[in-house]
């Protein structure tokens, strides 16, 4: 596939000079995120997140499967992140680049390893039937920072999703249709959100939510996964320039603030959506 | 199964079309039949891998991606169907030694896996599968038709030269009754379902449209097929009229393409007016038809 075109020397110099004066090419200040826009589908568990021009669609769905023999009480959370050439022609269908693998791993750490979804609550009959929750992440447009966009979309979709209600009598399981019984939300412990900072040069210049051009020119990135309870779930820095501890502390302080804003936005969007779509009648 | 209450058996669901949604693709389109919607993106003509390079024409690469799960054999079949429908219509010889990359992503497709209740109890009357899987859903015909329309409109958006327009629609027979643009539920109950693709344009079907592709599943009589085809033909004409209207509204054009001399040349580039020009070329072929 065609390689990503390297930015020109002019573009690079312009961006660096502007950053030294605290300016960014899209008019944001250095620690601002682009606007997060969440759209919900007709179906529960369908969410589109837009971070500026970056666009990710997530569909959450559930199926009933047999659990692993050594973990009879645990359901599954499967995250599928294959980047199609729709995001950008730099991504090849069916062959994951290093960047893509890193992104998939980080999303996995953020959602699964942080235990955001209670997997034991997905058990129906121990050792026989458990829910397997599938999160399909579709990257539609790569205008930089797809990871943060995907993490916001995925956690919102998981919170929006409802699984059908199930009645267990002995070994018999009855799955009730959505019309018959009120569908059940997933047990979610917290809302982890990824925030990516890009670093430029040796003079400790950091920007939040790098655009496509910024991520091409950055000398290194740092991804934080935080929740609104001010807990750090993941701190990942894969390669790039070394950073002093002070810089890392500084971006964490900023991250804590930004995560609260994003979390509040997710909450208000979900509430707005809940008013529009009647899921349960009391 | 109960007859349709929301629309007549020969009516379409509301159509929706939006173009140029994606920043990184050369052309993109979202096309929907009611709640079935598909996004298509085109990149190209671009650099092609040497192994796939063709000296006399462009390589057409098509990727079909489902909303849930991974692409399986049914998606490979959909890719083959699209290739056979689109390749003769695109003027591939104009872009030798290059690549046209078409990616299709299903954005929403109603699933009915849990719309009916069932039990795993042996005494239960309903069929009792021990596990419920996502793959049990059959590939939808309405989705297939939406894919064809979305790909064609992405080509128009990217300004890729084509001989004409390709428009598709799904038809199903439910209890002997003809149903245009069936819902997921109707498709499941259908004895047969068909996707018809019609081409419109000079020498490829005119304004009437020429049937260039039929994809049928199920049992049906020859007469039924022709009955369905004539219904599909009128439906595709209506869809094409909708597409025309939508593109015209977008570029502010009315009726025939505006005369080229009226446009002041230098000022246009700043206002991103390049697309309308490419567009009017696409429109012309439809107009002459």
Shape of chain B: globular
Q: So, CATH architecture of chain B? A: 2-Layer Sandwich
Distance between the termini of chain B: 41 Å
Tell me the total number of β-strands of chain B.
10
Helix/strand order of chain A: HEEEEHEEHEEEEEEHEEH
**CATH fold naming of chain A:** Ribosomal Protein S5, domain 2
User: Which outline of chain A best applies?
Assistant: elongated
**Proportion of helical residues of chain B:** 25-40%
What is the CATH architecture term of chain A? 2-Layer Sandwich
Strand share of the residues of chain B?
25-35%
From the 3D structure, determine the CATH topology of chain B.
Ribosomal Protein S5, domain 2
Strand order of the largest sheet of chain B: 1-2-3-5-4
Oligomer: heterodimer
Largest interface: A-B, 45 and 40 residues
CATH class annotation of chain A? Alpha Beta
Question: What does this 3D model show about the protein?
Answer:
- Chain A contains five helices and 14 strands.
- Chain A has 282 residues and is of the alpha+beta class.
- Chain A has one domain (11-276): GHMP Kinase, N-terminal domain (Ribosomal Protein S5, domain 2, 2-Layer Sandwich), CATH 3.30.230.
- In chain A, the strands form four sheets. In chain A, strands 1, 2, 3, 4, 5 and 6 form a six-stranded mixed beta sheet that branches.
- In chain A, strand 1 and strand 2 (46-51) form a beta hairpin.
- In chain A, helix 2 (98-113) packs parallel to helix 3.
- The N and C termini of chain A lie far apart (54 Å).
- Chain B is of the alpha+beta class.
- Chain B contains six helices and ten strands.
- In chain B, helix 1 (73-86) crosses helix 2.
- Mean pLDDT of chain B is 82; it is low at 121-131 and 260-289.
- Classes of the chains: A alpha+beta (282), B alpha+beta (289).
- Strand 9 (172-175) of chain A pairs antiparallel with strand 6 of chain B.
Brief synopsis:
The complex is a heterodimer of chains A (282) and B (289). By secondary structure, chain A is an alpha+beta fold.
């Amino acid at each position: 596939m065609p390689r990503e075109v390297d930015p020109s020397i002019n573009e690079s110099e312009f961006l660096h000079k502007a950053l030294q004066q605290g300016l960014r090419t899209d008019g944001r200040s250095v620690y601002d995120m682009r606007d997060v826009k969440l759209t919900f589908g007709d179906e529960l568990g369908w969410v589109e997140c837009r971070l500026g021009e970056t666009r990710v669609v997530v569909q959450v769905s559930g199926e009933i499967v047999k659990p692993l023999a050594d973990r009879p009480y645990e359901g599954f959370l499967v995250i599928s992140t294959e980047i199609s050439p729709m995001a950008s022609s730099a991504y090849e269908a069916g062959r994951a680049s290093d960047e893509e693998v890193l992104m998939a791993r980080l999303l996995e750490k953020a959602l699964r390893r942080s235990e955001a979804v209670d997997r034991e609550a997905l058990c129906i009959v121990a050792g026989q039937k458990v829910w397997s929750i599938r999160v399909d992440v579709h990257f539609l447009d790569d205008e930089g920072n797809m990871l943060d966009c995907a993490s916001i979309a995925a956690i919102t979709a998981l919170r929006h999703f409802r699984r059908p209600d199930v009645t267990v009598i002995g070994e018999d399981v009855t799955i009730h249709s959505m019309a018959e019984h009120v569908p059940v939300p997933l047990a979610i412990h917290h809302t982890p959100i990824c925030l990516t900072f890009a670093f430029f040069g040796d003079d400790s210049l950091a920007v939040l939510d790098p655009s496509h051009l910024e991520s091409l020119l950055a000398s290194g990135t740092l991804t934080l996964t935080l929740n609104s309870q001010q807990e750090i779930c993941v701190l990942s820095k894969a390669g790039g320039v070394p950073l002093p501890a002070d810089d890392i502390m500084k971006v964490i302080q900023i991250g804590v603030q930004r995560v609260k804003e994003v979390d509040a936005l997710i909450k208000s969007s979900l509430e707005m959506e809940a008013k529009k779509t009647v899921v349960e009648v009391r | 199964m109960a007859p349709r209450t929301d629309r007549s058996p020969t009516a379409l669901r509301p159509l929706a079309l939006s173009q140029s949604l994606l920043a990184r693709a050369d052309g993109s389109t979202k096309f929907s039949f009611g709640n079935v919607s598909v996004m298509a993106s085109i990149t190209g003509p671009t650099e092609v891998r040497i192994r796939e390079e063709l000296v006399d024409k462009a390589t057409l690469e098509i990727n079909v991606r489902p909303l849930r799960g991974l692409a399986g054999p049914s998606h490979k079949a959909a890719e083959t169907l699209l290739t056979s429908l689109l390749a003769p219509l695109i003027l591939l010889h104009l872009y030798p030694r290059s690549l046209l990359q078409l990616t299709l992503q299903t954005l929403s497709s109603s699933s009915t896996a849990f719309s009916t209740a069932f039990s795993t109890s042996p005494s239960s009357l309903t069929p009792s599968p021990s596990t419920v899987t996502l793959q049990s859903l059959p590939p939808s015909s309405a989705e297939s038709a939406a894919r064809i329309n979305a790909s064609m409109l992405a080509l128009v958006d990217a300004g890729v030269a084509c001989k004409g327009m390709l428009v598709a629609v799904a038809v199903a027979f439910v209890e002997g009754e003809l149903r245009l643009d069936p819902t997921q539920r109707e498709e499941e109950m259908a004895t047969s379902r068909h996707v018809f693709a019609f081409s419109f344009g000079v020498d490829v079907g005119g304004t009437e449209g020429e049937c260039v592709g039929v994809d049928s599943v199920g049992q049906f009589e020859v007469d039924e097929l022709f009955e369905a085809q004539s219904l599909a033909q009128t439906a595709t004409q209506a869809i094409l009229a909708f597409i025309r209207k939508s593109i015209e509204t977008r570029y502010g054009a009315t009726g025939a393409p505006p005369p080229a001399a009226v446009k002041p040349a230098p000022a246009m580039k700043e206002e991103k007016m390049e697309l309308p020009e490419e567009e009017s070329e696409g429109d012309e072929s439809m107009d002459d038809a």
